[in-house]
Design brief:
The complex is a heterodimer of chains A (about 500) and B (about 250).
Chain A: E1 5-7, E2 12-14, E3 20-21, H1 23-35, E4 39-48, E5 51-59, E6 63-70, E7 73-75, H2 77-80, H3 86-96, E8 99-101, E9 144-149, E10 161-167, E11 170-177, H4 185-189, H5 197-202, H6 209-224, H7 230-258, H8 262-283, E12 292-293, E13 296-297, H9 303-329, H10 331-337, H11 345-351, H12 355-359, H13 367-370, H14 391-415, E14 434-442, E15 445-453, E16 459-465, H15 468-478, H16 487-494, H17 498-502
Parallel strand pairs in A: 3-6, 7-8
Antiparallel strand pairs in A: 1-6, 2-14, 4-5, 5-6, 9-10, 10-11, 12-13, 14-15, 15-16
Chain B: H1 2-11, E1 33-35, H2 41-50, E2 56-57, E3 62-64, E4 83-85, E5 100-101, H3 108-111, H4 114-120, E6 124-130, H5 136-142, E7 156-158, E8 167-171, H6 179-188, E9 194-198, H7 199-204, E10 226-228, H8 235-246
Parallel strand pairs in B: 6-7, 6-8, 8-9, 9-10
Antiparallel strand pairs in B: 1-4, 2-3, 3-5
The chains are: A alpha+beta (about 500), B alpha/beta (about 250).
Chain lengths: ~500, ~250
């Protein structure tokens, strides 16, 4: 393992300490690691000394980092080693114009010009407004038809494009094309003043404001040598759990709506609002925006706020249990949930699914347990019971996570009898020539930010990975040989982020 | 069946009596800012410097609510000597200029167009387009269809087809990659049609201002009739704006 540097979540390492390998060595190390039940957290390109480098952050029960130098192309690891590299390599091609040779399905990820102003790998002209020069997968034959939806979907939903290749009702292949929400966040983050970073990171995905901003602030704190008081940590942990509950409840409501069981859809919709309002109690914003700042929290929590949260949880907990019971005991619902959109454990592991999508298929990974931050060192984890990989399992994991999160918040409330003091945005001087990786278990799963600073203490590369980056492929796989009418249900059971993916 | 009845009883009736009765938001909610005009210019300058959105015009003692994300950092300077935020969620305006405000906004109902009220006052169908934001605006627009707000009781609905719509409700800073689809949706709506810019992103680019991958404000590409500030706008801000601007008896 000499070619891998073991790091810790949120630990600053010197860029010079990152192993620098030749590409053949790098490929061998990564292939070997992945074959031994390893997963990729980050894999991206960055410039150093006028060279192109590739950096990989890997995990099994520990976290590792390694890098290599490449020229204008390299041999695709997707082709030779594992599907886990698939999206990452496409992203490298798009962002840095470096070609992964023999990649089995090389197409753009978000449709934008590369950062180096070199010729585009895909031959696109980005001066033209229309994205859509995509090489779509095609199936031909009697009775084969194609269904295309988006980018503007039917409801109040983010834009994305889906293509189904079907024979009658049966879906052979679903292709998902994103990029419509692309705002150029990674590039923007390297050239704006630090005071803008938390707000931009809260906008990576609004439903994961806390999760993404927590990753950002933890990185800035470590690079800027700021400490966070244990009290503020409690509030940050609580906020992450409130965000998780609100979204899981919203999803259970949406799933009920999709199987036309309206009572729980209405009840969950209302209860979700109650949890958003609890975030508003903490910080004035229903999505927890502006709560977390480098060094702590922007609003103190005292007995007034903790009291409101405690009482509200006491009131809502039995309601949630009853509505969950209503949903999960209806045989009509079970008939639609069970054995729909199944992703086997094997496929889930091969794709590297994270969060509830992975847990539902039996991948027992929770960043709160494996790489704890904030208060999670002292909080208990849980293990989900149903791991069949179908819609029912993904719904059931949410039920369990909601109950677990309520328990965690109640535990934290007992510890925060006193005032949790606030902090303000301060000037930060970042460690030069440094690298940091921060990981948190957002409500969708593993969120990770990786920052590289240059010798003038500026952020040279800011890499973000939303759990959706892994899991969209899981959704595409869940539709294989399903009826196309099951798509909404499969889609809601994954409920992935378009903006978190598009960045 | 028994479970359905038991839950129905437990859940009860939850719809808000707004707008018949006023609604109080928790004191930490940051709505329309109150600007203290006698504040020391040095403090105003400090506020402008700390503002991550560059939304404070220190020389004029004004805040651009179209840029502001209501993060409240300015309120922390000198105990809110320059600005404190009220709980007033009524922040919709009919012009972009009105959002650059000294703490007061024009009464929206008085500035709404009478022919809109006549046309859409009893029935308003909107097509929502999410054009590159963070999805918080969309989420808090969706919330209007939950039992608490129950938007359809006012005759306002979000519809799937632009052909069935009276107007466009846009969120997000209009990413380069969404511009074409947004314009196509606009074209598909029959005239007369209205356009609503909802949230800091669609008004000014929001947190993503200066990014080369966004258009940075809806009004650069479409004529906007109604602006609803916020990051995201509170559902009540949206509800208030829609009722004031379109319905006859808000």
């Amino acid at each position: 393992m000499a070619n891998l540097l073991q790091i810790h979540n949120g630990e600053v390492v010197k860029r010079s300490a990152i192993p620098l390998l030749s590409f053949p060595e790098f490929a061998e190390v990564l292939t070997d690691f992945i074959n031994r039940n390893g997963f990729i957290v980050q894999f991206f390109a960055y410039p150093q000394n006028r060279e192109n480098r590739l950096l990989a952050v890997l995990r099994n029960k520990q976290l590792y980092i390694t890098s290599c130098t490449v020229k204008e192309s390299f041999d695709s690891l997707t082709a030779s080693a594992s599907e886990k590299f698939h999206m990452f390599e496409r992203e490298i091609a798009e962002q840095y114009g470096i070609t992964p040779k023999n990649h089995p399905w090389l197409k753009m990820v978000r449709y934008h010009a590369n950062y180096r102003n070199v010729p585009d790998v895909f031959g696109n002209d980005y001066a033209v407004d229309i994205p859509g020069e995509y090489p779509y997968y095609e199936v031909e034959g009697d009775g084969i038809h194609e269904v295309a939806v988006g980018p503007v979907h039917a409801g109040i939903i983010e834009p994305g494009h889906f293509r189904f290749q079907c024979a009658g009702e049966e879906v052979f292949s679903l292709e998902i094309q994103h990029g419509y929400q692309h705002r150029g966040i990674e590039k923007l983050l390297t050239r704006v003043p630090l005071k803008r970073l938390p707000i931009i990171c809260e906008g990576i995905a609004g439903d994961t404001s806390i999760g993404h901003n927590l990753c950002c602030c933890q990185a800035l704190e470590a690079l800027g040598n700021l400490s966070v008081s244990p009290e503020a940590t409690i509030v940050r942990t609580m906020a992450l759990e409130l965000e998780r509950i609100a979204n899981h409840i919203g999803d259970l409501g949406a799933l009920s709506g999709d199987v036309a069981f309206n009572p729980p859809a209405a009840y969950f919709g209302r209860i979700r609002g109650e949890f958003l309002n609890l975030l508003l109690i903490l910080c004035g914003n229903r999505f927890g925006k502006s709560l977390i700042l480098p060094g702590g929290i922007s609003k103190s929590m005292n007995r007034e706020q903790s009291g409101i949260i405690k009482n509200k949880l006491r009131e809502l907990e039995p309601e949630i249990r009853h509505v969950c019971d209503l949903l999960f005991s209806a045989h009509t619902v079970q008939a639609r949930f069970e054995q729909t959109g199944t992703v086997s454990r094997e496929i889930a592991a091969r794709l590297g699914l994270v969060g509830y999508s992975g847990k539902a298929s039996g991948l027992d990974y929770d960043a709160r347990v494996f790489f704890p931050t904030e208060s999670y060192f002292s909080l208990e984890g849980y293990r989900n019971e149903i791991t069949n990989g179908d819609v029912n399992s993904r719904a059931w994991v949410r039920r369990e996570e909601i109950m677990h999160s309520i328990h965690l918040i109640n535990t934290l409330l007992k510890r925060s009898e006193e005032l949790c003091p606030k902090t303000t945005m301060t000037k930060i001087s970042l460690e030069p020539d440094a690298c940091i990786v921060t990981i948190n278990e957002g409500w969708r799963g593993e969120i990770s930010h990786c920052l590289l600073t240059d010798n003038s203490r500026k952020i040279e590369r800011y890499k973000i990975k939303d759990p959706s980056f892994h899991n969209w492929t899981g959704l595409a796989m869940s539709l294989r040989n399903q009826e196309i009418s099951d798509f909404p249900l499969c889609n809601k059971s994954f409920n992935l982020s378009y903006c978190g993916f598009d960045l | 069946m028994l479970k359905i009845i038991r839950n129905r009883i437990e859940q009860g009736y939850r719809t808000s009596s707004y707008p018949k009765e006023p609604i109080d938001l928790y004191h930490r909610y940051r709505g329309l800012p109150i600007i203290h005009h006698t504040c020391d210019p040095a403090i105003v300058k400090q506020c402008a410097e700390i503002c991550p959105q560059d939304a404070i015009l220190s020389a004029e003692y004004k805040i651009d609510l179209g840029k502001c994300t209501f993060c409240g950092r300015c309120e922390e300077i000198a105990d809110g000597a320059f600005v404190t935020f009220s709980q007033d969620f009524a922040m919709g305006t009919e012009s972009r200029e009105a959002l650059i405000c000294d703490g007061f906004l024009p009464k929206l109902a008085e500035h709404s167009k009478q022919h809109f009220k006549k046309l859409f006052g009893r029935s308003l169908q909107l097509r929502q387009v999410s054009a590159g934001g963070c999805n918080a605006c969309e989420a808090d627009t969706n919330v209007l269809n939950t039992p608490f707000f129950d938007l359809s009781r006012f005759g306002i609905d979000f519809v799937a087809s632009p052909r069935h719509a009276d107007g466009l409700h846009v969120t997000g800073p209009v990413s380069r990659n969404m511009k074409t689809a947004l314009l196509a949706t606009y074209e598909a709506i029959p005239t007369p049609k209205i356009v609503i810019a909802s949230g800091a992103c669609s008004i000014s680019g929001g947190p993503f201002f200066d990014s080369t991958e966004i258009t940075g404000g809806l009004e650069k590409i479409l004529p906007v009739d109604l602006y609803i500030p916020g990051c995201p706008p509170h559902p009540l801000s949206t509800l208030h704006a829609l009722l004031q601007f379109f319905t006859k008896t808000p």
